[in-house]
Amino acid sequence: MLAVGLDWAESYHDMALGRPGKGVIEQFRIEHGPAGVERLVVRCLTLEPDPAEVRVVLETRHGLLVEALLDAGFTVLPVNPDLVARRRGPARKKDDAEDARICCLLALDQYAELRKLVPHGELGAELRSIARDDERAARDERRLGNRLRADLLAVFPAAVDIAAGDLGAAVFLKLLERWPSAEELATASRDEVEALARAARHGWPDRFADRVTAALAQPRLPVRPELARAKAGSIRLAAAQLLLLRQQRQAWHRRMGEILLGGARHGRTRQPKDPQPGNTFPGGEIYLSMPGLGDRLAARVAGEIGELSSNSPARTRCNATPAPPRSPDDPDAASTSWLAAWPTTATSVASAPTWSTKRDSA
């Protein structure tokens, strides 16, 4: 067995190689690139011909370097950086070579419970990446929405009434992108507002135009014109960013549904229009059928777990003997079905449970 400790960086990586009973035997540095990774792989296979016996400990579980190590057949054991920091001690500062040595000692420690990184398949890797990007986009959307609300309350309070509690609506964001201030919106005609709502596929463009007119007619505290002009660019930028995030997240949601079901959905049903079983994530329908899991959460859970059919260890089967089928003709089958499944040997009869019959005698 060969232990490899790796402290990764953007331009280079510090390495430490070790053997059981000998500790760290070699330390060097490789550059981040095909030549450096090939040098590492060749050196490891020289010391240990079996790639599965090469245990690599590093502080990340993602990236091109991790994929290259998995393709080489090495056993990759990602650890939390806090574990390396605790082994380093409170009085020692960060040092790349020292961290590589600590990772190597972790790979040699037979009592350290390190979990092996199981590579995902193509569908699992794509689903996990999309689900994580969608989660980050959701956080960005909330952050931009809060910033937009604060700017609107400062210089354009009528827009909050126009939104009617939904600042992320497409028609409202397109309205702000075109008219980011009350002065500019006041110059727009009713026909222009209705045309914008109709282009945004609003269900009632005339009602939306009435809401805009009513919000602008409400008395407001005076807003300084210079502040309104200064904030107009920020409001327009936030609206444009939220629109792009909305469009991209919708595309991600469609793709996640295609991966889980094997094809694009038809209407609001959970069944794909043109199913392709070969392009379906294993167990996708099972994740979608779980109570409380929507499309996005089901995709996130499935992406993190991976393909169960290939990645999960063999599970032990349940050895319980099923009860015999009940006869519809026997009304007492529900209460006596367990007796039919009870073994009839002498030992089993002697050890069969007994119940008190005081109620019957009474």
Give the % helix.
Answer: 40-55%
What is the residue-averaged pLDDT? 81
Q: What coarse outline follows from CA principal-axis ratios?
A: elongated
Helices and strands, in N-to-C order?
Answer: EEEHEHEHHHHHHHHHHHHHHH
How much of the sequence lies in strands comes to 5-15%
- Largest sheet, spatial ordering of strands: 3-2-1-4-5
- The total number of structural domains is 2
Q: Helix segment count?
A: 17
Poorly predicted spans: 309-328, 331-362
Number of strands: 5
How far apart the termini lie comes to 74 Å
The biggest beta sheet, please?
5 strands, mixed
The class by helix and strand makeup works out as alpha/beta
Radius of gyration from the alpha-carbon trace, in angstroms: 32 Å
Can you describe what's shown?
With 362 residues, this protein is an alpha/beta fold. It has two domains: 2-108, Nucleotidyltransferase, domain 5 (2-Layer Sandwich), CATH 3.30.420; 122-311. It has 17 helices and five strands. The protein has helices spanning 34-47, 64-71, 81-88, 96-108, 122-155, 158-163, 170-178, 182-186, 190-199, 205-217, 225-261, 284-289, 295-305, 308-311, 333-341, 346-350, 358-361; strands at residues 2-8, 12-19, 23-31, 54-58, 75-78. The protein has a five-stranded mixed beta sheet with strand order 3-2-1-4-5. A hairpin with a 3-residue loop joins strand 1 and strand 2. Helix 3 packs across helix 4 and helix 9 crosses helix 10. The longest helix has 37 residues, at 225-261. The chain is elongated, with a radius of gyration of 32 Å. It starts with a strand and ends with a helix. The model is unreliable at 309-328 and 331-362 (pLDDT under 50).
